[in-house]
Structures are given as structure tokens and as C-alpha cells.
Amino acid sequence: MTISGSFEVKLLIDKKVSKKNSAREIALKVIHDVNEKGSYANLALDKALSFSSLSMRERRRVSEIVNGTIRMTKRLDWVLDLFLKQGIRKQHPWVRNILRMSLYQMICMAKVPDYACVNEAVELTRMKTRQPALSRVVNGVLRSISRSRDTITWPEDELEYLSVYYSHPSWIVELLTDLYGLPACKSILEYNNTPAPLVLRSNSLYGTRDNLLRSLWAEGVKCSASARTPWGIYVEELNHPIAGLSAYQRGYFYVQNDASMLAAAILDPGPGQIVYDLCAGVGGKTTHLAEYMQNKGQIWAYDIYPQKVELLQHNCRRMGINIVQARVRSVFDQGAEGPLADCVLLDAPCSGLGVLNRRPDSRFRKTLRDTKELGAIQAQMLEKAVDLLAPGGLLLYATCTIHPEENEQQVSAVLRNRSLVLEGFEKRLSFWGLDHGDKEQASRGMLAIIPGKYNSDGMFYALMRRTE
């Protein structure tokens, strides 16, 4: 379960960031805060940009430098260690991150000339450290790399090479290789290093996708209809913040990846039904369910984070939805006071291995142990979800990971323990264009979408019907 659209997260203003700071200064501060202070990349970046007066072009540049540098830290550190007498980890914290940021621009941003990166790096080092010796180190290392980049050597072991070159922890590379083989693993790693596309879901309560496309173009948004879903719109060029668009303020769309839009289509609730959304987040899937229900019936939406519930309520108001009752409450605190549901959506907390392209630092914050600890929570949540479901009702279990221990194994366990059967949903996704193998999966009631396979996030869905 993830938050869609960083503009929707409420942020505090960082008074240390000056409006007069250059794009590279702002980028450096964010990178430093993430790597040295443990800040979350998306929150630190939004906080820095919220107080700056940078143009949209400069904001995009800062975002690219920050996200790219953090995402590719493992590859950058490998290269820097080849040219440093002492490893990158032993460098002054500001120098460490100036070198990373500058090297990223040199090797990953083709339009940035090396001399500009070097000069800016030296100036930033002078400003941040006031130690001429460190400026000379930065100058010498970057110039050496510029002259010798074609001679850089990489690990000989294939798995280690993939881990270093594509900048992922070794355990993730090993897991993906075991699950899908080396070629598919490489494709997933490449997708994870590609900036996530910006996709909008048109609000059917307020008009058609074609109407929204015309509205967006009129506001200067270059965009096109998604070929995957009837509601998706891909944004190709945006010259204004999304939250400032009239179409956004009027509730004509929600920011949501294509693969995440499948939840409502699979569960397919009808008008007048009772639906529980047990880990609702800020309301992406919740609002889509309401659209399917034509804003008729009841949706009980819960999340444990007050700020998410507040944003969920805001999104419902913005999109003209009044059937959602949102509460700050844990799944485990659900009592017997409410009615049993016709449909339950459990968008469970997970390792997020299907959406590593959305948070550049998330890959480095996860461990294999985390996935095992999450498994116990997921199993308990599934048991609770069944208790809330009326006989004959449908339960959709969803995650944004591709780890079988969090997906298929959880579903198999609850099927053994409870009166549930899998429900095929292939026909409900006829618009998506599933390949033969995925059609077979969906027809049996489970579907694992590999990251990047359909130019979308990785997701898992399992649809179950309660028999008694």
C-alpha cells in the first residue's frame, strides 16, 4: 500500500532552505539529509521544493538529481571507490554526497557537461566545508573519472555485477533471480531505475476520460490516454504543479498507477452494496470503488494514520464522493457493531518490492527479515477480513510486492483455514491485455504482475468468495 502523489502529503516548511539557493544546492541538501540523517527522500524533496521559488524546469532538475543520485548510490560508490585512496565511506559527509551527486550527473545525465559538474562540485565543497584540501580532492577525483570512465571495471560475479551496476541490495537481486531467472531479473532492475510514469485516473462521476483529456490540454498539460485501462491518462509534460490545476481542484482525476487501478475492477462492487476498505491509505482505491458503486451504498474505510485518513476525506470531498465513512482505526480493532460486508478490500502492508521505482531510497531501507515479519501481520489481517465478510461476499487481497511469502503463500493459508474459494476474474480485466500466462492466473483467482511487464508497477491480487 503506497501513497499516490507526493503533492498530497502535508509537509512542514524547512526554513533552512533559502529561496535564493541554486538547484544543485537544494539537491545536495536533500541528498545529504537522506544519506546522513535518515530522512525519507520523497518527504525531504517535497519539503525543500515547497519553500523554493524554482521554476518547474529547475524543480524537475532537482528531482532528477536527487532521485537519481539516491537510487544509484551503490553504483556511484563502486566507481568512486576505484578513484579514492580512502573509500567513499571514510570521506567528509558533505564531500561524500557532493561526489555522489556530481558523478551521477556526469554518467547518467547526458546533457550535463563534465566540466560544469566538476566546477560546481568544487564550489559546493568550498561552501560546505571551507577546507581547500577537500576541494582539491573533489576536483582531482572527478577529473580523473572524466578522463578514465571508459576503463571502469565492474564485478566479475554475475549477481554481484547486477547488484552493483543496477544499484540494488544483493538480497533483492538473489530473490528476483530465484523467482524469475536472470533475464527477467535484469528487466525488473532496469524498470526499478526508470522514473515512475505520472498516471491520472479520470473520475467517472464527473465525466468521461475524453472530457478530462480536453480539460488538461486546455491547461497546458501534454497527455494521452492509457492503452491499458479505460480511465488512465499518461502525463508527458507538466508545466505547473498538479495541485494547482483546475481539473485537480474540481476533482476530475486522481493520481494512480495503472496496475493499482485494477483493484476496483477486480472487486467490482455494485451500487447499494456495503464495502470495507481495511487499509485505505489516502483513498486511491477507495475513491475508485465509490465510482464503481456510482456513489451509492456504503464504504467503510479505515487506516491507522490520522494524516492519511484526513487526506482520504479531502479526496472524497474533492471528487464529489459522499458514501465513504473514513475512520482512524486498525484492522484488528474492527468490532461486531457494523454490518457484514458484500465486499472487502484488504490492501495489506507489504515489503513494496513491486514499487521500488517510486521511492528511490526504499530499496536500501528493506531487509529480507522485514518480509518475514510482515507475513505474520498479513495473515492476521486476512483472518480479520474474513470475519467482516458476509456469506457469499468477495474478499480481495492486494499487495504491491512480488514476494510469494507475502502473496500466494498467505492466500493458500487462509484458504486452508477458512470457508473461502478462489474466484476467477480474468473477464473483469479484459481491457488490460493480459498475456496468456497472466490470463491463466487471473482465471484461477490470483494474479502477480511483474514490475515493468506492462510498463506498470508490480502488484498482486487474489479474489476469494466466502462460502458460508
Main attributes?
4-stranded antiparallel beta sheet; 12 strands; 4 domains; 14% strand; 468 residues; alpha/beta; N-utilizing Substance Protein B Homolog, Chain A; disordered N terminus; Alpha-Beta Plaits; single chain
Give the helix/strand layout.
Layout: H1 23-37, H2 41-50, H3 56-71, H4 73-83, H5 93-108, H6 114-129, H7 132-148, H8 158-165, H9 170-180, H10 182-192, E1 198-202, H11 209-218, E2 222-225, E3 232-237, H12 246-249, E4 253-255, H13 262-267, E5 274-277, H14 284-292, E6 298-303, H15 306-318, E7 324-328, E8 341-347, H16 362-365, H17 368-387, E9 389-399, H18 408-417, E10 420-422, H19 436-444, E11 446-449, E12 459-466
How would you describe this protein?
- By secondary structure, the protein is α/β, with parallel strands linked by helices.
- The chain has 4 domains: 144 residues, N-utilizing Substance Protein B Homolog, Chain A (Orthogonal Bundle), CATH 1.10.940; 35 residues, no CATH class; 58 residues, Alpha-Beta Plaits (2-Layer Sandwich), CATH 3.30.70.1170; 209 residues, 3-Layer(aba) Sandwich (Rossmann fold), CATH 3.40.50.150.
- Strands 5, 6, 7, 8, 9, 10, 11 and 12 form an 8-stranded mixed sheet that branches.
- Strand 6, helix 15 and strand 7 form a beta-alpha-beta unit.
- The chain is globular, with a radius of gyration of 24 Å.
- The N terminus is likely disordered.
